[in-house]
Write a structure and sequence with these properties.
With 219 residues, the protein is an alpha+beta fold. It is built from 4 helices and 12 strands. Helix content is 21%, strand content 23%.
Length: 219
């Protein structure tokens, strides 16, 4: 017969707590990308991710890839704080990349095609966290980034993206590493947040404790 012992509570709670990092990871969203910068693509491509959750996420050992042969594993710590952005780019030289300071430089192992391509984000366990599959119907290009209209919208639908209108240097438009719109930071977190899961764990532990007390009183 199953007995509600502290050891059982510990392992049951640990099983549920194992899902907490995944809940935090799922709050990362690809919100903007520059696939065809003015000048050389190899010098000026970039994309940004936004952490819509309440827990910092470290992108170390995460991967970016397309559905073909391009892929890169992030080889250093890149902590994305709550309600914050991380900017990742192909070329880290500010003299040639448009004056941008990236949180991480992935080099030429990953390329954003100007036409049809994909941008996939995987966590350190290989779980897909987000993806954008784009084609020529997406806004942006020719020195203009594509910006997601709202964090709560499907970022695979071109109708949910707009072309940037703000210059970040003399030749390119975008808002790299900054909100696309002033309301971006007010979007609600995903419902499956780490805090909700933690609350569920604590509630279950409380129920198990009460059940254990009742069973011990039956004799």
């Amino acid at each position: 017969m199953y007995r509600n012992t502290p050891l059982n509570w510990f392992f049951s709670a640990g099983f549920l707590l194992a899902f907490l990092p995944q809940a935090a990871h799922s709050a990362l969203i690809i919100t903007e990308f520059m696939r065809n910068p003015s000048g050389s693509d190899a010098l000026g491509e970039w994309f940004e991710v936004y952490n819509a959750g309440s827990t910092p996420v470290d992108l170390y050992q995460w991967s970016i890839a397309d559905l073909g042969s391009n892929s890169h594993t992030i080889g250093s710590s890149v902590v994305v704080g709550p309600s914050s952005y991380a900017l990742l780019g192909r070329n880290g030289d500010t003299a040639t990349n448009g004056g941008l300071v990236f949180d991480y430089v992935y080099g030429n192992q990953f390329v954003l095609a100007n036409g049809d391509d994909e941008l996939l984000l995987f966590d350190d366990l290989g779980t897909e966290i987000d993806r954008v599959v784009y084609d020529s119907s997406f806004p942006g290009g020719d020195g203009v980034s594509a910006m997601l209209v709202s964090l709560g919208l499907d970022n695979n639908d071109p109708a949910n993206w707009v072309a940037a209108t703000t210059y970040y240097n003399a030749d390119n438009k975008g808002t790299p590493g900054a909100p696309n719109f002033s309301a971006a930071a007010t979007v609600a977190e995903p419902p499956a947040s780490a805090l909700l899961l933690l609350g569920g764990v604590l509630a279950l532990m409380g129920n198990w404790g009460r059940r254990a007390g009742s069973q011990s009183g039956l004799g």
